[in-house]
Hints:
The structure holds 2 protein chains of 2 kinds.
Chain A: E1 4-13, E2 18-25, E3 38-43, E4 47-52, E5 55-57, E6 60-66, H1 70-77, E7 83-90, E8 103-109, H2 113-126, E9 130-137, H3 146-154, E10 158-163, E11 173-174, H4 177-183, E12 191-196, H5 199-212, E13 219-222, E14 238-239, E15 242-243, E16 250-252, H6 253-260
Parallel strand pairs in A: 8-9, 8-12, 9-10, 10-11, 12-13
Antiparallel strand pairs in A: 1-2, 1-7, 2-6, 3-4, 3-7, 5-6, 13-16, 14-15
Chain B: H1 4-9, H2 19-26, E1 29-34, E2 39-41, E3 49-55, E4 58-64, E5 68-75, E6 80-81, E7 95-98, E8 102-108, H3 109-118, H4 120-145
Antiparallel strand pairs in B: 1-8, 2-7, 3-6, 3-8, 4-5, 4-7
The complex binds flavin-adenine dinucleotide and FE2/S2 (inorganic) cluster.
Amino acid sequence: MTPLVHRVVDRHVESDEVVTLAIAARDAGIDPPEPGQFNMLWSFGVGEAPISLAGIEGDVLLHSIRRVGAVTNTLCDLQVGDELGLRGPYGTGWSCNDLGSGDAVVVAGGLGLVPVRPLIDSLVDSGERRVVLLVGARTPEGLLYADDMDRWADSGVDVQTTVDVGTEGWRGNVGLVTMLVERAEFDASDTIAYVCGPEVMMRFAAVALVDRGVAAPSIELSLERNMHCAVGHCGHCQIGPHFVCKDGPVISWDRSEPLLRVRSL
Amino acid sequence: MQSISDLMAEAPLLDGMDQTSFDLLAGCAQNVHYGEDQLVLTEGGPADHFYLIRKGNVFVEVDLPGRGGVVLEALGPGDVLGVSWLIPPYKNTFDARAGGEVSAIRFDAVCIRTKCDADPALGYSMYQRFSGVIRQRLQSARIRLLDLYSLNVD
Ligand SMILES: Cc1cc2nc3c(=O)[nH]c(=O)nc-3n(C[C@H](O)[C@H](O)[C@H](O)COP(=O)(O)OP(=O)(O)OC[C@H]3O[C@@H](n4cnc5c(N)ncnc54)[C@H](O)[C@@H]3O)c2cc1C
Ligand code: FES
């Protein structure tokens, strides 16, 4: 539960709102997180926020953070050499080991691309499944990780993007990410799907995947709830009988659908 | 060479349509091609055609002063272009422009409206199928209005 002191070793501005920090332990580090898990990042004197793993490079952890409030603002302002606290890894990860053949369809909206970034790398490395990546964002400028998307496409991933609002000069897709689910080529009968983004987007994407014929237990969603302890003690993140910090954030659609359909849960 | 009926048989919109209605539609259909940037529909123009896109992308656009054509929706293979032909006063609401080489089946709306008036089974089938398209576009527009990816929505 005690945060370990870490240091920013690199910093990359992804957009007006999002910064990626590369973080290394000053002394002892945490166990390596799995794709889909999160860490609690502590900005000294301000507070803690759960932030998903965006990647691992040796002993260095990558976290992409969007400015929304006090904690995330100060984390985004950290510069190379600055220190922060970190504890974790917490929660459930994506199912990405020993998947066998078939297709893997990743559906991400907005910042939802962050938790699936290490997942896609792992799927590409294993080479077991054909990977289809469907990404939605508000505007073309809001599409994260342009270099990674090129890299994944070069590795054979079928990368499709769409935006809600096509700004001047944009000649790509305009429409909901669910439209990409309807059009994408994959064998629904042998597909595992991973969905991450705003909750409404995830609900519609999961329904579109089921309509295509993907089995509900084969669709994984990453849920978000406010958190405090991150270890299943405080109840802050409770959704129905589950604690998102411990039983999630990754939960399959057959288990999460009844919960997400309860109003204001 | 594929006949117009062969091409129509590949269109999701017409899945499961009875043969009589299908043949009536085929009599109003034509295979067409557009080059990049060519206008397929013009805002305010008569809605006397609709299209089933076979190849390429078509951008549904609105012209904004000082900003040019802003894309509202990108349509691709299998999609329907044009629903205003169904509803008086039969005028196109937006521009539609080919995003590259486009092949489509073009339907003569006057021909189809006349056949729908004469054959209610065909008319009902067309309204049912286009209701599905309109429902999907309405749902997409409503969800996009939520502006899900901006802050303070969840
Ligand atoms: C499992 C999990 C993984 C997460 N992974 C990431 C990640 O990788 N990167 C990242 O940037 N964020 C991530 N988040 C969200 C992040 O934890 C919150 O944005 C953060 O806790 C907000 O703290 P704050 O003090 O900066 O803002 P607060 O002061 O708590 O909130 C400021 C304002 O922002 C709104 N707000 C808070 N959280 C969100 C949100 N998630 N989306 C939209 N508006 C919000 C609040 O309603 C409030 O109006 C994750 C959350 C969870 C539960
Ligand atoms: S954050 Fe405390 S129980 Fe989940």
